[in-house]
Design goal:
Radius of gyration: 35 Å
Number of helices: 30
CATH superfamily of one domain: Valyl/Leucyl/Isoleucyl-tRNA synthetase, editing domain
Helix content: 25-40%
CATH topology of one domain: Isoleucyl-tRNA Synthetase, domain 2
CATH architecture of one domain: Alpha-Beta Complex
Number of strands: 34
CATH class of one domain: Alpha Beta
Strand content: 15-25%
Largest sheet: 4 strands, parallel
Strand order of the largest sheet: 4-3-22-23
Structural class: alpha+beta
Shape: globular
Length: about 950
Amino acid sequence: MSETNSGAEVAAPHRYTAAMAADIEARWQDFWDAEGTYEAPNPTGDLSGDAAMAAKPKKFIMDMFPYPSGAGLHVGHPLGYIATDVFARYQRMTGHNVLHTLGFDAFGLPAEQYAVQTGTHPRVSTEANIENMKDQLRRLGLGHDKRRSFATIDPDYYKWTQWIFLQIFNSWYDKEAGRARPIDELVAQFESGERTTPDTRPWSELSANERADILGGYRLAYASEAPVNWAPGLGTVLANEEVTADGRSERGNFPVFKAKLRQWNMRITAYSDRLLDDLDGVDWPEAIKLQQRNWIGRSEGARVDFPVGDSDAITVFTTRQDTLFGATYMVLAPEHELVEKIVPAAWPEGTHEVWTGGHATPAEAVETYRNQAASKSDVERQAEAKDKTGVFTGAYATNPVSGEKVPVFIADYVLMGYGTGAIMAVPAHDSRDFAFARAFELPMRCVVEPSDGRGTDPAEWDDAFSSYDAKIVNSSGADISLDGLGVVDAKAKITEWLAARGIGEGTVNYRLRDWLFSRQRYWGEPFPIVYDEDGIAHALPESMLPLELPEVEDYSPRTFDPQDADTQPETPLSRNEDWVNVTLDLGDGAGPKRYRRETNTMPNWAGSCWYELRYLDPHNSEKLVDPDIERYWMGPREGMPHGGVDLYVGGAEHAVLHLLYARFWSKVLFDLGHISSSEPFHKLYNQGMIQAFAYTDARGVYVPAAEVEEIDGKYFYQGEPVKRESGKMGKSLKNAVTPDEISAEYGADTLRLYEMAMGPLDVSRPWDTRAVVGQYRLLQRVWRNVVDETTGEVTVTEAEPDEATLRALHKAIDGAGQDMAGLRFNTAIAKITELNNHLTKSGGPLSRSVAERLVLLVAPLAPHIAEELWRKLGHTDSVVHQDFPVADPAYVVDETVTCVVQIKGKVRARLEISPSIGDEELEKLALADPAVVAALGGAGIRKVIVRAPKLVNIVPA
């Protein structure tokens, strides 16, 4: 290398440079595409005996679906894609049939919001974004089977999303059998009388609407009118999982409020126990399993009915049924369906003024308070620090154990999303109830004996007392007494008593709510549902799928006032009258009839609930997936009791969104016999995040990070000081670095190496463009060890390598192979670097056998340069399907190891000895070493501790 006066580098004609890398990478990407190098064959022939599976082991490797953003990729996005590509390449080289591909999760709000702003059809912008992302990903040399790629917006794809929805709609969960069954089997039970109808009338005597209502109570996909999460900023409702802990939308960070609408739901709660239990059979990070367990929230307790009025009862779920005698009032969520029924026309005589909120009638008080509650998020309603608010309904319920009349309030700290939306308030033993009782001057009764010396009069307490290790007191009635019992025994006794009288029973409750599945937007899958003139929902026959999105002139959903019962959201689809109102023959014998289509769309999660299955059989127009193909790639195996994808890599942020939903869909499809895998993803790996420094000026406005200068440890933009912060990389923070930039400056192989070398894959790490050059130089040295930079000729010889080189080579093969198998790519690169440094320092041309194995080691990580060097070494076939080198154990074991000899904890000698040396021989060698003899100075020895072959510790007398 030489430099001109300007300092610019002048490369030797065949030196590995960015320009050469660009040429090499483009050529080999074209070659891989033309040759179908990464195409994974599906099994053929008779699979009944698993012969095809045994012939060549398979690996199904997946990344989480990318969303094609208009901003394109920054260098943080490909981290997981590069990692799975390296792993997939290693698996191919170790004899596996590898399925590795990538599609696009292309429905969703960003494209629709862009359409609202610009009038551009979401498909136009989305498809342009997909093409841009494909170009960026291709430049990285990712080894995807492109035949299997698709986007969720393809009608050929969402035909099957709609088909799966209909399978769920036409199913019910049989609790006795513990699985989903076709709804026709439930109908047959009603028709035969095997199962009675709710009012015991024969099925044949019920009207069509009555039958539909009954079946709706069983269907796994059903429509209901219930409180929902309304995000005005998005113009749509959201599932609980899409609302953040601070009561805002997961996408866009908009405030979320409660509203009451008729929406589609998925009965995911039917699978609560299986979703919990089957976590034990998948290889997932414990943190993700814990999040799912907590979200599902299984808790054991009792259902208790509190009579109210002449014919109604308020049902509560409690985990502390032992405290029933301490229930002195009740609270309903403001949205509870019983509120309207129990509110009397006037305040009962003697009603406390503080209970009424200053309103003339209970109805007025309840309406006002409900409107106030609807304007708050769930998080705001449950904030511990806030003052407890509520209002008396004017109604009283009866405590079933004491016979006491207890007032019924509504309060916003009780939510419909947990339990029954009603609580029995035991203020002496619950802090929230205690605060509410103090605020509304309600009575408190101690029924759990305090152990902290506070006494048994709650009027003298500063807060409630709660304990599971105490005796029950003040809990005796006409025919039951819990006094003197411990909590566990009291629970068992009261539960048995409730069940015997038909006013309660032991039960299990879940935090998990049914999945809200409607969105009031345009850019999503249309529901394959139509309504007849009686409002009954009918499934479209499979022959009418896919039901494609129609054209609309306005993509904006029209919001509504959730406090105004006369207003409803208007969806974009509802404005296309010709599409909404149709005459169809559904093939049910009724002939052509007039129907109205469902005008909500499915949420953007729908398409990603099953996409792993489409990768298996992407062009099948007759079936969701061929059963033999699905069983080959995803069926249960030893160590994989539920089957699933072998490796699934993505971010941890989808723990209770995509991952929970996909598990639910898999279980329904498994129950119905469509697939053999009851879990979608066997092994889950969460990659870390690439972070970057961002800079803000005095106004707090982000400035371009690339234009910030560091001077004496301080940072300046255009001469003005700026503040540095660390966090995400992104366009909004003006600190994004694109993979295109790095590839242009150093080559894609260098980018791949750098991202894998930055640190452990599951740990977040800071991006440093200046450090990329280290991996660039590694590739230059690898190139130089094989190719003459002046002539371009290969410099290897046919001579055998020396022993030191063989040891360095086989240690690298052994270590790097184990690291790649374990997704420890940073340490694999370190071992390859160590080997290459040894080869560089050894001088002289490399042995061909060493050079070829060096190239094979590099191939999974830097495939383009590996292909080029493989070809230069005289091979005509691709390096992609070569065997990964195998280490010779004789060279992996060190010839000698260093043993440290310590006296009183200080190192006095280092011995080079055989790794197989015994304790007795090592002790003799250590005591005879001159440095040890001198350090002891004739002193006696009290004890010698030997840990062959690495340590001898001598304790003088």
